[in-house]
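re the bet — no i am not wrong, look at it urself. input seq straight from the record:
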Amino acid sequence: MLDTMTFTKAAGGICGALLVFLLGKWAAEELYHVEMHGEASYVIEVESGEDTAEVEEVDFATIMASASVEDGAKVFRKCSACHKLVEGENVAGPYLYGVVGRDKAAAEGYGYSDALASMEGAWTPENLSGFLEKPSSYAPGTSMGFAGLRKVEDRANVIAYLDSLDD
């Protein structure tokens, strides 16, 4: 049933198809990555961006004043995989019970990275917001692999939720 000639034809067909694919890829790369020499023959003039409306910065305290604890509980689900809300119960991350107002790197029994262990001060709502926006930018070298919360409202809601847990 399976003789040498059939196997040779099948292997040749596969090798031939691979060769055609690689040559096609090479030809496409050459066509689409052509360098332009000289100047453009037709230039489209665009208005400058000076007339654009400026985005109004809202104070974080104002956003915190309107933060929702219920919405913060929903957003906290992202955090619950690595953090617990029970005092002293550390998992992949430190426990977050009483984190608002607590000194940085002060959760008992948790081994912090050098980046957070060297930071001083307390976790104020503003500091927490900066950290939650993008942990790797706030504390370069942190072992927290979370990408961050982009929306300031989400950060304020989570901070309000965490602050409501402890008395």
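see?? The radius of gyration is 28 Å. told u. also DSSP finds seven helices and no strands in the chain. so pay up
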